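Example record used in the benchmark description.
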Amino acid sequence: MAAAAGKPLSPDSPTPQPGVDRRATCFYDPVVRFLIHGTLAPAVADAVRRHGHIAADAQMAELPEGLAPDELLTELHRRQLDVITNDSALVAAALEGRAKFQRCIGYLRLSGGDVEQTQAIDRLFGRYGRLSPRRLYTVTGTRVKVRQLPGA
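Model output (C-alpha cells):
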C-alpha cells in the first residue's frame, strides 16, 4: 500500500492520511452474495458472476424448501444474502414490511428467456455498480427503477 509522509496505511486509520487517495484506504469488499430465486434462467446466475458477484440457488444456499415469502426474507436477512427474483409474492412481502429484511432485491419484471434476463442483469449492474441495502431494484425491458424498502 501507499504511504504518506513515511507513515504506512493501516485498517485502523479512521480517516485518510494527507496526500493519500481516499480509495486506497477503503477496505470494503464489493462482492455481494445473491440468491437467484423464482423461475429465472440459469443464465442469470452466470451474468451475476460475470459482474463479479456470487450467485447461488436455494439448494446451494442450503435454504429449506417451501418457505413462505416472509420466512424466506427473514432467513435471507439472517444469512446476509441479497436476492434476485421474478417472484411478485416475495417482492410484495418485502414492500409490506412483514419480515425483517435489510438487504437489496433485484426484481426482474420482464418476459422472455435467457437473453432478455441476461440483458436485464447487465442493465442493472451497468446503471448501479454497487447496489444499496434496503432497496428494491425493479428491472423492466427498458429501464431500472429504484424504490426504498420499508424500515429504511
